[in-house]
Design brief:
The protein has 137 residues and is of the alpha+beta class. The chain contains four helices and four strands. It has helices at residues 13-25, 31-50, 70-80, 108-119, and strands at 55-64, 85-92, 97-106, 124-134. A four-stranded antiparallel β-sheet has the order 2-3-1-4. β2 and β3 form a beta hairpin. It is globular. The termini are far apart. It binds nickel (II) ion. The site of nickel (II) ion (NI) has 4 residues, from β2.
Length: 137
């Protein structure tokens, strides 16, 4: 197998079972190809993050809007960083919980810093920062 390297690895049984279930759901019959996809995806994200050029990112937040001042805090943060916030989408999930997806643009370092700051706001139940590709004007 020219250009290929065979590796072996050790992984927890329940983790590989979940991975295989995920492959089945996503119609990925080949375990090696599924691993390669994950590695490529991580490498691309890493490359985007190390670029020193204006890029995009998203922050996904789930929070209970009854929790003290969290909605106000998010609005204030968005205004303070209006140059970075391109758009946000708010969905009322149920009587308590809100889902907010915020699209950002800026330098990769400041995107991560702001994203992690938002996720760290007290009352955020779930938060995820996703680095995106360079931003073309
Ligand atoms: Ni809401």
């Amino acid at each position: 197998m020219a250009g290929l390297e065979r590796i072996s690895m050790t992984i927890e049984k329940d983790l590989i079972e979940k991975f295989d279930e995920m492959r089945t759901r996503n119609n990925l019959p080949n375990r090696s190809e599924a691993f390669r996809d994950l590695i490529r995806q991580r490498l691309v994200e890493e490359e985007w993050e190390q670029n020193s050029i204006e890029s995009v990112a998203t922050v996904t937040l789930v929070y209970d809007h009854h929790k003290k001042e969290i909605s106000d805090k998010l609005v204030t943060e968005a205004h303070h960083h209006h140059g970075m916030v391109m758009a946000s989408m708010h969905i009322h999930l149920d009587a308590h919980n809100c889902l907010e997806v915020i699209a950002l643009k800026g330098m990769p370092e400041e995107l991560r810093e702001f994203g992690e700051h938002l996720i760290g706001i007290k009352g955020v139940l779930h938060g995820k920062f996703v680095m995106g590709p360079p931003f073309s004007k």
